[in-house]
Amino acid sequence: MSEQAKSPRPKSPRHVAQVIRAMDTSDGAGVSLKRSVGSPALDMLDPFLMLDSISTDKADDYIAGFPDHPHRGFETVTYMVEGAMRHQDSTGADGILRSGGVQWMTAGSGIIHSETPEQEAGLLQGFQLWINLPGRDKMKPPRYQNLEADEVVEIAPKPGVDLRLVTGSVEGKTGPVSGIATAPLFVDVKLAQGAEITLPVPHGHAAIAYVFIGTADIAGTSIATHHLAVLADGTEVTLRGGDGGGRLLLIAAAPINEPVARYGPFVMNTKAELMQAFDDFQKGRFVASTAIPRHRPPTHSRS
Ligand code: FE
């Protein structure tokens, strides 16, 4: 049982503490994206290190993809709304993430992978979220939780409200991704105009809401497309579809409260551990690969 179940905390609504307009940038081999967490406006929100949104039907904006690059010390979550992305990594894993699917990668001690659009035309819409790992988990072996669209829990609690739950609990259901150190909530919320839902968000957890289609009222504040609302503390948040409806990601997780030493794709606790990560990478000590050259420098700051 959770602490909350043993001694219920009085309900308190979360409010919007900060609104951030996602910044246009590019990463990988030239993929256009919008960055909210991890931008100058919000360097990080413990345990969230980065939130990127890709949303374009111009092939030139995404076709180059993200060639081989490493990760160590944190988790990358790729949520595909529309389109397809192939991933290949240094453990030999190879797969295609399709519309509605999720890849939750706990990079741990390190992987080298590539992320390549598996389409040459059409809309590509999706997210990548980076969540930090506590020091005790940073050097654990990599772990993947790959979910097809039909494995994500879909809930329609009332007319005009459609939820897709990846992890955490809402409306008496629990999402399929499990065993994550920061006990995250990750839910895609689609709201018809005026439709309203109040969802629980564990007290003390960092929480953000990113509107990616239309507009939504978040705790009474109207949030436009490609804007991020950072929520103040509380136990729940009320969401309502704006004019024409809206769709957003509601994400929460427990802060880690440890020092962060970060450089590009390596996120450790100390500078010495960061130097070790570079050394291990240069010397090919990340998970061995037969398919991927191991000595390329980590030129990509992102994924
Ligand atoms: Fe990556």
Quick rundown:
The chain is mainly β.
Q: What is this structure's SSE topology?
A:
Layout: H1 3-6, E1 16-21, E2 23-27, E3 31-35, E4 48-56, E5 66-71, E6 74-82, E7 84-89, E8 94-98, E9 102-106, E10 111-117, E11 124-132, E12 143-147, E13 153-158, E14 161-167, E15 169-170, E16 173-174, E17 185-191, E18 196-200, E19 206-218, E20 221-223, E21 227-231, E22 236-253, E23 261-263, E24 266-268, H2 271-282
Antiparallel strand pairs: 1-21, 2-3, 3-4, 4-11, 5-10, 6-9, 6-11, 7-8, 7-10, 9-12, 13-14, 14-17, 15-16, 17-22, 18-22, 19-20, 19-21, 19-22, 23-24
The structure holds fe (iii) ion.
What does this structure look like?
The chain is mostly beta strands and 303 residues long. The protein has a single domain (16-282), classed as Jelly Rolls (Sandwich). It contains two helices and 24 strands. Strands 1, 13, 14, 17, 18, 19, 20, 21 and 22 form a nine-stranded antiparallel sheet that branches. Strands 2-3-4-11-6-9-12 form a seven-stranded antiparallel sheet, with no helix packed on it. Strand 19 (206-218) and strand 20 (221-223) form a beta hairpin. Fe (iii) ion binds next to strand 5 and strand 10.
Name the CATH class.
Answer: Mainly Beta
Helix-residue proportion: under 10%
Instruction: Provide the β-strand percentage band.
Output: over 45%
Ions, cofactors and other bound molecules: fe (iii) ion
Q: What's the overall average pLDDT, rounded?
A: 92
Gyration radius, rounded = 19 Å
CATH architecture: Sandwich
The tally of strands reads 24
**Main pleated sheet:** 9 strands, antiparallel
- Compressed to H and E, one letter per element, the order equals HEEEEEEEEEEEEEEEEEEEEEEEEH
Q: State the low-pLDDT regions, or none.
A: 288-300
Gross geometry: globular
Number of domains: 1
Structural class: mainly beta
CATH names the topology as Jelly Rolls
CATH superfamily membership:
Jelly Rolls
Quote the distance from N terminus to C terminus.
Answer: 36 Å
